[in-house]
Amino acid sequence: MADPTLPVASTPVAPADRGEAGPVNKGEMFTSFDVDAFEVPSPREEVWRFTPFRRLRGLHDGSAQRTADPTIVVSGSTDGVTVETVGRDDARLGDGGVPFDRVAAQAYSSFSDATVVTVAREVELAEPVVIDLTGPGAGEVAFGHIQIRLEQFARAVVVLDQKGGGTYAENVEFVVGDSAALTVVNVHDWDDDAVHVAAHHIRVGRDAVVRHFAISLGGNLVRLCPVVHYDAPGGDVELWGLYFADAGQHLEQRLLVDHSQPNCRSNVVYKGALQGDLSGDRSREAHTVWIGDVLIRPAAEGTDTFELNRNLVLTDNARADSVPNLEIETGEIVGAGHASATGRFDDEQLFYLQARGIPEDLARRLVIRGFFREIIAKISVPDLRERLEAAIESELELAGA
């Protein structure tokens, strides 16, 4: 029997009604608040084929039950910002999007309280809002739900900083009103034991601007699925990602940008580096997965979109899977394209630097810093930029670069 506390569907994520199977394209995915509406996923399914199920700790089949809650602290700008703790019956939950897989539905059905952060109409925040989230701890399981709302003409920077240990699944909604501008930086700085599975639902109003940064550094397994929906023409979305996988880590990013409205723009840039265990132990392989799906529907005339993924393999025993997908249903667009590449150091770059008297180890560091510099420079929070640069330096020390 369905949970009577689950909300009634109101606005569909796609033209198909919620709860109807048989998607026509990637945008017509099955969605439901009810975990029982989803079958237990299988590695044979395309959307799960890269994920190591044995490391999900039961998040996919319902055997992972809540034993604790995350700790959430919201700080930073306060004028024009409302922070609320609400129950599952709050009518606003789901405005950003509805769970599209069993783990996301399990997270929605299992959280104890949701956190809603609202930036009022026409408010422009001078300082970022910082949401510090700490996992439940080693051996514990938690579920969460966060919604960030920007009303019309609001402008804000939000930092979602996630750390700690344990097993954690969540939904995060970003509801960006007409002509509003949101920059969000999500940092995954988990402990080595952490398993984190997250669905990000990004809903973009008329002429709204979203800059979404996903930074994955820590954790045992991290799987992030951002989905972008445009509500009206003029939306402008950029998705930036940076990940650095060490031995034994699995970092997975699966994106869908659903262009359903005319004259919208999207740009996706994700860059990753990998370093595995040189002993050859396959269980200590560094593994990253990036799947980038862009759908341009028949009504989305005037779309301008591009997606890019680059992976730098630093050692043996490291594997990067990169799959860009572009589905176009109208020819009346400004432009659409994608690119993906995975490789080792550019020998010509190293030779150029060494020929000018720079030692090889320093030359390698300079190449990696330059590789990530494009993304870090886009982050508008100075303290966070410095922290990420220091974290990358620490990773390079582990790599011996």
TrEMBL record:
Residue stretches in coiled coil: none
Domain spans labelled SUF system FeS cluster assembly SufBD core: 138-371
Annotated region (Disordered), positions in chain: 1-25
Residues in the signal sequence: none
GO BP term (any one): iron-sulfur cluster assembly
Family membership: Belongs to the iron-sulfur cluster assembly SufBD family.
NCBIfam families: sufD (TIGR01981)
Protein name, per record: FeS cluster assembly protein SufD
Origin species: Gordonia insulae
